[in-house]
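Hi team,

Filling in the usual template for the complex we talked about on Friday. All components are listed, including any nucleic acid strands or ligand strings, so the model treats them as one assembly.

SUBMITTER: L.P.
PURPOSE: interface mapping
COMPONENTS: two
RESIDUES: 628
SEQUENCES:
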Amino acid sequence: MSENAKLPPLPVGTFVERAVTWSRKNLFDGWFNTLLTIGSIAFLLWLIPPLIQWGIVNATLAPTIEGCAEVTGACWGFVNANLRLILFGTYPYEEQWRPLLAMIVLMGIICASLGGVKYPSVRKWIIPMWVVGVPIIAILMWGGVLGLTYVQNSYWGGLPLTLILSAIGIIFAFPFGLLLALGRQSNMPAIRTASVVYIEIIRGVPLITVLFMASVMFPLFLPDGVSIDKLLRAQIGIILFTAAYLAEVFRGGLQAVPRGQFEAGDSLALSYWQSMRLIILPQALRLVIPPTVNSFISMLKDTTLVVIIGLFDFLGTVKLALRSDPAWTKYYVEGYAFAAAIFFLICFSMAKYSAYLEKELRKGEQR
Amino acid sequence: MTVATETTTGAVPPPSEEDVIVVNKMNKWYGNFHVLKDIDLTVRKGERIVICGPSGSGKSTLIRTLNRLETYQSGEVTVNDILLGDDVKNIEAVRRDVCMVFQHFNLFPHMTVLENLTLAPIWVRKMPKKEANDLAMHYLERVRIAEQAHKFPGQLSGGQQQRVAIARSLCMQPKIMLFDEPTSALDPEMVKEVLDVMVELAKEGMTMLCVTHEMGFAKEVADRVIFMDAGQIVEMAGPKEFFDNPKSDRTKLFLSQILSH
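RESULT (copied from the run log):
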């Protein structure tokens, strides 16, 4: 008997009885919760069935305007028919395997880096991977060597453009934001003032303005004959903009590290950069994983603004497809739903990864 | 330097004649607040000094100027014949030989105990990792905590953490150790384990400056006891004279307050 007493009590009753107990405790606990539960169920009943009717039951994948005209539901045929235009934009049709391959390489490096951070044996390959991978992507996209035809970057578009702008943006905005955050805390007045002025000016201006300045005003200041590529200008604009936001996120992290940690580093004769790299930043950055990923997600979505300076990112190519034939134009809901689904997939993965990373880093340190 | 001894009290080796710390007419202000007033202090190699005084008397600030965690505005502080001023090279040179143990331990929470200990030897002393690990294990054994080497600081008790902090300092093989109220943040039952380690260090001839209210420790190992009040050194004497026959009224008052309970 005493053996049994140590075991946790088994749930009593049949499945139905237990379900009733559970829902009493969790769903109908007081009049307010009961009201919320009933309201939510009613809302879902109103929303879900028609959505399934429209999106799946009455929908068609037939990639023709005629096929779409026959159904009452969603015309996924629009996406189906224009998939390559939506994914790759105006990149030459015959060469579209190149952006596809570039995208696969990029996703491969990203996944290997994110997944490999945990393992020291993989970690030392992350930087070499990027050093080799980025030129491969550049060669695939631009061409002009190894028998690949040259493709001007004004023809780039779609998902590869969005991913490249975001990935390169994160890679450069991260260290630049870090330097700005350290600069803002510096003992040297000139560096501190420069950092504060930069951060406050950039934060006080919308990204659209930064992109406009980069594309319209900036060339006016360049001497005749000198021109900087439009895509590069947009990329730099995104980096400069994101760095200012990241700087404030990192500053929050730096301030959250107790003063004693800085003093311990000093008293062990570590230099400023050694203390930062080995003691302060590992703690500060860990604290700000959620807001950092927040900034990355919002940057990824902000890359869609490059459409205003004439670059067709993933959202831009959806619009391009809608306009490609007047008959398709009325299927904008399907087009935008598809774009939204892809964006959601990317952003949700980032959010999930940040949650995983936090949990992973906290392991073993808990009391 | 080590003196073999079987007794537990008073068996500390006498300090040498060599001066390792010279503080000359040092003054420090926080804004208008005069924290340290005309401090003169000379510490000889192997000397053990206990600094006590009411809170806000500037005792912590004083020992923090000795490794430049605090700046000073006038006067001079010289450690191992190196002038502590704005020169970063000088500051780093002094810090390599002067280690500090803090009230709140200040261990690095994201590293294991062993990594805490090997960090500075590897990065500052450029020691190979294996050698640094051996050194760290040697000192962890000395503070009787070797079995905790692969835990994180957050998993240890306060007394254990402070012993790790002492071992971390020892791994730099310092010539001078500064203790800033090392037992003040500890639960009472853990004070002894930390003091025992400090007494052992004192008996091995380590030069120590210790801000503490542990008067038992002062009586047992100190060569000199300093009483500070309102930014000044009010009294400085050998422990026997200091406790049995204090000269200043402020010292008498302070001693009566802390010894009465």
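MY TAKE: The mean pLDDT of chain A is 84. Chain A is about 75% helix and 0% strand.

Thanks, L.
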